[in-house]
From TrEMBL:
Keyword annotations from UniProtKB, A to Z: Cell membrane, Exocytosis, Membrane, Repeat
The protein's name in its UniProt record: Synaptotagmin-like protein 2
One Pfam assignment: C2
SMART domains from the UniProt entry: C2 (SM00239)
Gene3D superfamilies in the cross-refs: C2 domain (2.60.40.150)
PANTHER family in the record: BITESIZE, ISOFORM I (PTHR45716), SYNAPTOTAGMIN-LIKE PROTEIN 2 (PTHR45716:SF5)
Matching InterPro entries: C2_dom, C2_domain_sf, Synaptotagmin, SYTL1-5_C2B
Chief place where the protein resides: membrane
Gene Ontology CC terms: exocytic vesicle; plasma membrane
Origin species: Bambusicola thoracicus (Chinese bamboo-partridge)
Length: 324
């Protein structure tokens, strides 16, 4: 699998021969219901930027296969070193029982200024067979980095990301509306590393719907930005009629599309809400925000009249159908 997949995706991962080791420890902290991954250091990493003979490594983790639910965690970037020391803890809030069905994917990447990050190796642990009571499993250990094998992580890497900012304005100035409703402002700034579906041309635009309203009037979209996988939109959308309590029930669905004369192709999307699985008391499948997505929404709710910003990884979504 890895051989054939590697050739498909080699453009995204660079073609660095994997070498070196990573040192880390994992532990489950019962009091906090958290999985802690202590990333210590790496040794003898491969050269990612051959021209400048350097690597700027960072480490990224996912829990698979529920990769979207909990999102990724990553360390800071260490510049110009093949032996980076991180000493950082990456945390996942997750019930211990759920770990039985998970694998932990830890990968090392070279951070490239132009967003073409190169893969430097990975380690995958099956948490289903992990003995949490074995003291030696809590100790810091060295693991050899391996070439890419995880097909799950392939799908993950391949959608790009979106930089956006949100703001809740409780009482818009000059509004004649009842004072208790406010506006949600969505500022879509740019996307990075969008996947090329056909050839080397990409003409992308973004659609926005505020669920549960799937009517045409709820849908707004940006202009199309041509011929780039890193489009800059700088487009702000405003939705009004939000009472503070509506913010707990609503969810912003942002989807990125490749514009084509015949049919637009879906590239990836975000759903930004509380991710509770429910809206106004009804169970809905679209209330499925990742921890990073819901963190941004919570931040917006807690800081009215202030822009809050993040760059979030795009993911596969079952896009909500439009109603009349």
């Amino acid at each position: 699998v890895s051989g054939s997949l590697m050739s498909v995706y080699s453009g995204d991962f660079g073609s660095v021969d994997v070498k070196g080791n990573i040192q880390f420890a994992i532990d489950y902290v019962e009091q906090l219901n958290e999985l802690h991954i202590f990333i210590c250091q790496c040794k003898d990493l491969a050269v990612a930027d051959v021209k400048r003979q350097r690597s700027d490594p960072y480490v990224k983790t996912y829990l698979l296969p529920e990769k979207y639910k909990l999102g990724k965690r990553k360390t800071s970037v260490k510049k110009k070193t093949f032996n980076p020391v991180f000493n950082e803890i990456l945390r996942y809030k997750i019930e211990k029982d759920l770990l039985k069905n998970q694998s932990l994917n830890i990968s090392v990447w070279h951070n490239d200024t132009f967003g073409r990050n190169s893969f430097l190796g990975e380690v995958e642990l099956d948490l289903g067979t992990w003995d949490w009571n074995d003291k030696s499993n809590k100790q810091i250990n060295w693991f050899p980095l391996k070439p890419r094998t995880s097909t799950m992580a392939f799908e993950l890497e391949n959608r790009g990301e979106m930089k956006l900012a949100l703001q809740y304005v409780p009482q818009p100035v000059g509004g004649k509306k009842i004072l208790s409703t406010g506006e949600v402002h969505i500022w879509v700034k740019e996307c990075h590393d969008l996947p090329l579906l056909r050839g080397n041309r990409l003409n992308s635009f973004i659609k926005c719907t505020i669920l549960p309203d799937t009517s045409r009037k709820s849908r707004q979209k940006t202009r199309t930005v041509s011929k780039t996988t890193n489009p800059v939109f700088n487009h702000t959308m405003v939705y009004d009629g939000f009472r503070p309590e509506d913010l707990k029930e609503a969810c912003i669905e942002l989807t990125v599309w490749d514009h084509n004369k015949l049919v637009n192709h879906f590239l990836g999307g975000l759903r930004i809400g509380l991710g509770t699985g429910k809206s106004y008391g009804t169970t809905v499948d679209w209330m499925d925000s990742t921890s990073d997505e819901s963190a941004l929404w919570e931040k917006m709710i807690k800081s009215p009249n202030t822009w809050v910003e993040d760059t979030l990884p795009l993911r596969m979504l079952m896009v909500a159908k439009l109603t009349k």
